[in-house]
Amino acid sequence: MKYIYKYAIALFLGIGVLATSCNLDVDPRQSIDANGALDTPDGLEAALNSVYARLRAESNYGRDMFALSDALADVGRTTNNSGRLIGENNNNPGAHFTAGFWQNSYFAINEANLILDQISSGVEGASAAQLSRWEGEAKFLRALYYFDLVKVYAYIPTAVYEPGVTDEGGVPMPLEGSITSDIAFTRNSPRASVNEIYTQVYSDLNDAINLLSSAGRSGPQYATEGAAHGLLSRVALYRGDYQNAVSAATAALGSSAGTVLGGMDYVSGWRAAEHPESMFEVRIQLAAEALGVNVSLQSSFTTLLNLDNKNAQGGWGDFIPGPRVLDFFGLSQVQIDEPGTDSNNWDVTRNDDVRGFLYTTGNTVRNAGRQIESIKFVSKAGFAFGDNIPVLRKSEMHLNRAEANYHLGNVGDALAELNAFKGLRGLEDVNLSGDELLEEILNERFKEFAFEGQRFFDLKRYGRDINKTYLSANNVLPFEDFKVLPAFPQREVDGNPNLNQNRGY
Amino acid sequence: MRKILLLGLAFLIASASAFAQGRVVTGTVTSGEDGLPIPGASVVVKGTTIGTATDLDGNFSLNVPQANNTLVFSFVGSEMQEVNIGNRSQINVILQPDTRSLEEVIVTGYGTQPKREVTGAVSSVKGELIENLPMQSFDRALQGRAAGVQVRSSNGLPGGAVNIRIRGVGSINAGNEPLFIVDGVQLNNQANSSLTQANPLAFLNPNDIESMEILKDAASAAIYGSQAANGVVIITTKKGKAGKARFEFNAFAGETEPMKYLDVLGGSEWYEMRRDALTRGGDGIARARALSNMGRLPSNWQSLSPEELDAVGEALPTYDWQRELMGRGRLQNYEMNVSGGDDKTQFFLSGSYNYQESSFRPVDFERGTFRTSISHKANERLTLETNINLSTVSQNVPFAIDGAFLGNPAFSASAVLPHNPIRNEDGSFNEAIGGVLGQNIALVNEFNSGSTRRNTVVGNAIASYKITDNITYRALFGIDYYFLQEERYTDPRTPDGAGVRGRASAFNDWRSRFINTHTVNWNKTFNGVHNVSALVGYEFVSETRQGLNGQAIGFPTFQFRYIDSGAEPVFVGGFWTGYRRQGAFVNANYNYKEKYLFTATARYDGSSRFGANTQYGLFPSVRAGWNIAMEDFLKDSEIVTDLKVRASWGRTGNDQIGNFAARGLYGAGGNYANSAGIRPTSLANLELGWETNETVNLGLDYGFFSNRVTGSIDLFDRRTKDLLLNQPVLWTNGFGSIANNVGELQNRGIEFEIGTVNIDRGGFQWRTSFNFTYIKNEIVSLFDDLEFIAGAAGQQLAVGQPVGNPPFPGSSAPGAWFQAEYAGVNPATGRPMWLDADGNRTYLPIAADRRYFGSSLAPYYGGLNNTFRFKGFELTAFFTYEYGAVVSDGQYNFLRENGTRLTLNALREVNDRAWVNPGDMTDIPRTYVTAAGNANELRSQGRNFGTASLLKADFIRLAQLTVGYTFSPTLVRNLGLTRARIYAQGLNLWTYSDYPGYDPEFVGAGTGQIPITRNYTVGVQLGF
């Protein structure tokens, strides 16, 4: 009897152990193994979406490429409604493009590199046209990210400050994807020179132009041949390669990407969900992708929720036009009806420049009271805080070409193009030459792209001081000041023996 | 309890002795311990079977035969006493407690052990010590109770997270949570709440706990192998006892209140402060702008003189937003339990209800529990047992657990500008709030709603079978299951909800964990001196968790608050995750005459979380002890009652990392233009394996003067090797980090516990217990000869420096503070200064100027408990203390800006200290802001930069003060009761600290966290 018990128990124990000790394999259900993840057309397509989507981040085009960079420049001033952008507006130490910009951009570049690596080793079941399109789009995106990184973290070739200091160069430029711990641990990319980066950006954009000319898809939310020409035109202008800037601008203008608008059509272009001028824009498709009330472009620039009812509480309106912008368009507050407590009864005065319609008065919900605000981004996609972001507008091609022609000595072409452009905006022709003509072209660029993040880099590529005496006395950021460049994220400098920090940090 | 137990028996003996002849002797038996009468003590005539038992008042009356002259008095747990009667007919006896026979039994890994034989570092906290504390979870109640166990409330959320660290912080990224085991079921204490902190350990009514054992050294814990690196807390719940059904009713109720309101500026003071700041910033219209910042600029301001503008500012009123939003809360607790049974079957049933409000309405905690414990002896060999704990917890959630959100009352209450009225004259909410906090927080708080409900089942079924008299097989099947439902509604009447016409979110989260343990136990004594026992076992744990959540916007009216009424879905989400673990273990004990004690254990454990090549790990341990007090030369010593030295070494493992951290994965992310995106989410590390903890422990247990002085001392060196470190990867390489086994962390320390009976005379007793812990935490090495890894803002993980305290379960340890040292204010200019690398003062410190300034982990902590008893009265005063933590308190930092950077309110003590005139020596810079709102002095860092914002978080706190009275049993017997006790209790009544923020006891960023509260309760306990 005793033995039977023993056996029974032993059996019980044995079954208990066997039944449960099969294995320890547990597989995730929301992720797939990195190995082979991109080796299907659907997988590769999805991975490419992520590279686009990273442009949407606050640190990139979601806010900083536009709002933060304009705050650094002399476009406007802060309201202190939420306290955001004040430090940047005053060029305080450390208040500049963030570590998140670096991180997000390099993550995107790595994803693009992994896609390009996969394409070069083949994608099972993919057609040649698919391969071309993917490669073209990935190269366009990689070029855009590198161009943004180098223009932020390094001096622009047309104006390098370096008396007494060694040229720290550009930014690290890995071109091979990192998906194994080997590369992740050991690759300490040094700063490539600024020239090397521009050369690489040229090469990627030219590849993109070739590949997308036949295989591209349409739509400003995706990279196209026209968008690649457009971006190349801007890159060449920054590089001081004016011949290429002209030819690329011409090719871009000849492409099917975007339309140059004039008169009130231009103003209504800003009310469309998809800007007709866009050669490439960052798409915010869903309310869930919007950056929300704190950091979206809409919220950064205006307190309005939409243009139907100015009283509705919208964003913070943290960053508003400064005196130069107000002056460009003759903007001042005016009450148009009674009672004055209703924000719908307020607007602004405007001059002949149709761009004045991109500004109006906000509401009094926030601390700073009613202010004149930019309404380039104001719920035009149909939901709040989620406007699509035009990275490249076709109008820029005229201004790029005019400026490049000026530097090439084709002053007549430059003036003619400027005047034609002014006509589109409701302005009289001018008759200028020499420095005055260049100033007028740059002013036109300022007017056209205020609140679109170009001004800071326009000042930087001409090596100009940033004059903000309208904020406080002596508030001038000399071009020589180290705060023109942001710090590299300290962790990257600490962790990479080959990486030198920017001057002053 | 034991007194009541013997009552029945006593009556039996009494009736049996009624027939004897002789003289009658009467008297009273009282306890030398507390001076109270002992009911049920046995009184026997020596050498006969004649005897009786004392009644409820300790009285006896016995017919003693003439031939006998000696009575023997005895009672369980007391020393037997013989008394010669002589001619007396009245005899009063005081029985002293028998310290040697009162053998304390300690629950250890997969078994129990007499305390005498314990050779590891184990602290035991009895349930009665934490009885009736108005705390929602037992982990909170451990604060200050045991050396080596550091407990901090994360914040004042009732039922919120509790930070518990056994012997320091042993891991940087892989979790520092001890293993909690309730009735053999290993719990997962991750809260997973999206909206609040819902401490999973709050499922258990702390009053259902019989005892808690804390296995501190690796050798004691190693039998739990892979889970035990951060120590083990074993909770034993109350079980049934044979006998007539006994009922206990227990109730307390009271209030919570804020410990502190911050002293902030009033309306006119803030105006003056702002006006002066703007003036210093060079603003030509400082008065007007100050008024404008406050939303109080008269429309005709340009025609007003400075004096007239000042008059407007000076006339601004002050409203106390803190007292509007913070306040007293109710708390109450009711419970009832019944236990009983016969010699074959015992049961324990209990039910309880607990409710507590925080100092910020409507945040609260409501719990109902039901517990049943049944054991049944099926036959001589087979015993069946089951313990089931059911509980449901509801919490009204805060706007946010922490953070500088406008809508967060815990942030805004002290920061909103004080001149803003809370309500309009007609009683409606004032919605025109001046200042950066432009929302009426009272309105937001009133209209928004959110709740969390957690239903938990923790239970087991156990069968144990005696194969032979000394071999027992035991099988345990356990479950830890929870279902978490959460919802939140952002009301369209609030500013955040207005733009989207209301926003509703819902989250559901299921987690089930199964555990299956089989053990076989054997013991034998050879030649009466060699005691040998052994245990072998196998255990399997599997856990899965999945969730489903969604959000919608666009609600018809504010009355529609459920997600399906929303016009537009914003997102739907879901997830699944899981892991498995299995292990085999063995434990062998040998002792010689209970003098020389040896234990060895080993466990072989595998976890699905690790790389395919490194899934399994071996965790051995050895312990030895010498019971010196059992040696002949001390056996009869009056002075030395207990003396034992012990030494142990053990290795334990830690796998508290992500379930798939070893895998290289692509996950969903980066959807674009209506099509799905994927991106790489982690780098593969096939070699990822166990983080191991090795602890050497040397200990001494002592008891002197008949154990009037008892305690222990432990020295330990705990080294964590192969740290599961999120080794940083250069962002340029596409990832932030990779989990890797690198580096070493060390916790060295000393623990000291002492308990004394200071006075025990005439029924008056004063007992003290004190514990002290010192731990030196230090990173020994990182990787690749690296000296440091940059951590969160201002912190760094560096070799030779301590790490900080990881705030929440699952969060990583922050580094030591690594910042430029603040050098106070330049007396000439009022500008803040820092020290550069050479020790010179500078306005613009750079990265190279940073130095180390300690961490948020307190190296010194402990507790002091005093109890006084006299007759039925008792008084308990329990203190806890911490010393040496350096923290940054986000809430204080915002207020320390003194209304410069943002238009937030300021602390009076900060504003009063601010530099005003040349020559002022102070640490607070001049209040300065430009017209554009820039609060940085030109070419200068911000005023909170560097160590300017670091605070010492030292404190001594009267954590508990209880006054109670137990009615004499005679008195309450007439009411049909066996026991009646009333008490009044206060928690956190007094704190010694010079901390300028709400409270030094918090973890995390400190911004907008609900501070912990002071509680008052009165209660009653009845037994019948």
From TrEMBL, chain A:
It is found in: Cell outer membrane. The keyword Signal applies. Residues 387-505 form the RagB/SusD domain. The keyword Cell cycle does not apply. Signal peptide: none annotated. Residues 24-237 form the SusD-like N-terminal domain. One of its GO terms (cellular component) is cell outer membrane. This is SusD-like starch-binding protein associating with outer membrane. It comes from Mongoliibacter ruber.
From TrEMBL, chain B:
It is found in: Cell outer membrane. One of its GO terms (cellular component) is cell outer membrane. Residues 1-20 form the signal peptide. InterPro entries: Beta-barrel_TonB_sf, CarboxyPept-like_regulatory, Plug_dom, Plug_dom_sf, TonB-dep_OMP_SusC/RagA, TonB-dep_OMP_SusC/RagA_CS, TonB-dep_rcpt-like. Residues 114-232 form the TonB-dependent receptor plug domain. Keywords: Cell outer membrane, Membrane, Signal, Transmembrane, Transmembrane beta strand, Transport. It is a multi-pass membrane protein. Belongs to the TonB-dependent receptor family. This is TonB-linked SusC/RagA family outer membrane protein. It comes from Mongoliibacter ruber.
